[in-house]
Amino acid sequence: MSEVPRNREAEAAEIASLLERIQAGDREAFMTVIRLYQQKVFVMAYSILRDREDALDAVQETFLKLYQKAGLYKPGNSFQGWLLQMAKNVSIDSYRKNRKKRREWETTTPLDDIPVAVEDRAGDSAHSDLRIAFSRSVETLAERQRMVFVMRHYNELPFNEISAAMRISVGTAKSLHFKAVQNLRKRLSPVLGIQP
Amino acid sequence: MSEHNDKCPDCRAEADAYEKLVRETDAVKAEIRRAAATVDWDALPALIADRAAAELPKPAARPRAWLAPFRLTPVLAGAAAGLVVGAVVMYFALRTPGPRPDPGVGYFASGEFLDRAELEQARRNTVDYLEKSQYMLLEMLDSSEQGPVVPPAIRAERARDLVQKKRYLNAQLERYQMAKAKAICDQIELLFRELAQVSDELPAAELGRLRGFVEERQLLLKINLVKKELQSGV
User: What's the distance, CA B228 to chain centroid?
Assistant: First the structure.
């Protein structure tokens, strides 16, 4: 047996043991799991929410959910995939909720109270416009394409981890990634100054 | 590849586009890293653990291993629920016999049907009466030649039974279809009334008179003819 699978098995056994302890109410085990995965969950949440505070809230919600559902984890499946799936769902819920609130705020707040100069664009160049366009383009990708793109590039996950997180085959994950890149290229072609 | 890109403007443009994409991706990644760098990762686990302890009940336990084979996927659970509901519906549908008549209405049949049923019943009862009468007369006639076949008391009892039966039959014999049968039954009845009165052995003279009555009126022959008519339903 090679080194990598042995490490994975050991990791899975360790996670299973930690989750059992969490079910028994072991605070230390819970904190250990948080320490191991909090940054990965944050990256996932931030890539969807694009706001530090919202992302931190999503991290907390994700781990609170994990605390309640620790007994539902099926040993043998990727724990990281399962957790990131949970983080994705929490973040999307939060995004929808925040978008609604933001719209309500924008429609009910007097015009004078809305800060017009949200960003200092004085020194902004075409580069900043590209950044905004890029972010918007990622947001408008189809959900599965966006998730694969985010996990691949922001979370830096290998395709096998992405496939486990999204419960799809590695081939499908690669195909979705290819489509995501193609779509981004197409949508950004005016900003990038290339033929669509 | 770089040599090819130097020569091919399309591929160079394409490569530039992807390079810009990668650059933007890296920029967003860097933005995420910057945001992550400002978070106090050491304090966060304790904060979340405190919230969990304060706000949430104890985590849900994993379903017992021995129950695992019985845990259904949503599709199977839906199919099982459908089967149960279907079985219940079929049970109630098949258990209930068709529409029951209203107890206040009672049994309904057409007048024609009832009339035919009554006539048929009258025919059967009359045929039965005639057959029994025939046996009775034959026994009486045999007695006259070879001595009493049936004890006189039993004969009188049978005669009374037949008189009784005729009384019951009278209402059915009133129908016009039963006119012939009524005529012969009335004649037989007269005879049986006399026999019912006599519980002792009949004297030879009396027997002779009765025998003469039967033969004179050809009662046995008429009984046979009427019986055949009734049995054939004419």
Answer: 39
